Amino acid sequence: MIIVKSAKEIEKMRVAGRITAGALAAAGEAIRPGMTTRELDKVIHHYITSHGAKPSFLGYAGFPASACISVNDTVIHGIPSNEKIHEGDIVSVDVGAYIDGYHGDSAKTFAVGEISDDAKRLLASTEESLYEAIKIAKPGMRIGDLSAAIAEYNESRGFSVVRQFVGHGVGRDLHEDPEVPNFGKAGHGPRLVAGMVIAVEPMINLGKPQVKVLSDGWTTKTADGSLSAHFEHTIAITSEGAVILTKPE
User: Fold this and answer.
1) In the 3-class helix/strand/coil scheme, how is 69-104 assigned residue by residue?
2) pLDDT digits (tens, 9 = 90+) for 62-96
3) Is the distance from CB of 246 to CB of 142 less than 8 angstroms?
4) pLDDT of 113-143, one tens digit each?
5) How many Å apart are CA 104 and CA 72, to the nearest integer?
6) Which residues are bridge partners to 180 per DSSP?
7) Which domains does the chain have, with CATH numbers?
8) Do the bridges between strand 241-244 and strand 233-238 make them parallel or antiparallel, or are there none, so unpaired?
9) Which residues are CB-contacts of 204 (< 8 A; sequence separation ≥ 6)?
10) 36 and 81 in contact (C-beta within 8 Å)?
11) How many CB atoms lie within 10 A of CB 51?
12) For residue 248, what pLDDT is reported?
């Protein structure tokens, strides 16, 4: 069931979204070669809790950290550890903040120092496709319109779209209906209406689309070892179009 939010609820989600965006910005400022992903997770945890919120991911279905931190060929759900970050890595950071009954959810892939040209192209295409989808997200459009826009943008540039994981609704629960795939047919899927809040999150691979989940039940890597990028915003559908709730201030 898709839960349509009131204006008051969306205002509460703006607060959660601002904290989420701030935590992601803090991660971007802190990330550096030589630090571990666990150290980066501590930065995110401190930011969220110091702003009166709780990390949405900590304890979610047993997840043991405040952020998913995924390096290079890890697509999503990387568990922070003693893994060190190196010059030339790309690091996807996915964070959520919960406050006053509502969640925010956002992700960004950061370049650590000088990265390869292929990595630069991958990051640019993934992020640009997110905004292509947001640009057309308005009442009357369908989820499939967003999905098709993301897929077409990336596949036309030689990248592949992960199909095992998708975006989702956001609200009182971190994951709500509807699913928001990064692939599909325009004109299909649930129709967007004012008050819907969704997380749009392209997950794009440099190589083939197949992924594998490791034995920890979380860490998801590209099956062929290629690089992967992940960008995400929580957006509210309004009569004027999409409003990004996790936009940095």
Assistant:
1) EEECCEEECCCCCCCECCCCCEEEEEEEEEECCEEE
2) 999 999 999 999 999 999 999 999 999 999 999 99
3) no
4) 999 999 999 999 999 999 999 999 999 999 9
5) 25
6) 167
7) 7-244 (3.90.230.10)
8) antiparallel
9) 122, 125, 126, 129, 154, 159, 160, 161, 162, 182, 228, 229, 230
10) yes
11) 15
12) 84
Query: Looking up tokens 């630069």, which residue turns up?
Result: 120
DSSP state of 62: G
Q: Is 58 helix (H, G, I), strand (E, B) or coil?
A: coil
Distance CA 97, CA 112 (A): 24
Strand segments (E) across the chain: 54-55, 67-71, 74-76, 90-99, 102-111, 160-161, 167-169, 176-180, 197-200, 203-205, 211-213, 220-222, 228-230, 233-238, 241-244
**Mean pLDDT taken over the chain:** 98
Whose CA is closest to 218, among 73, 37, 68, 44?
68
User: Helix, strand or coil for residue 110?
Assistant: strand
Q: Give the tokens for residue 132.
A: 């292509």
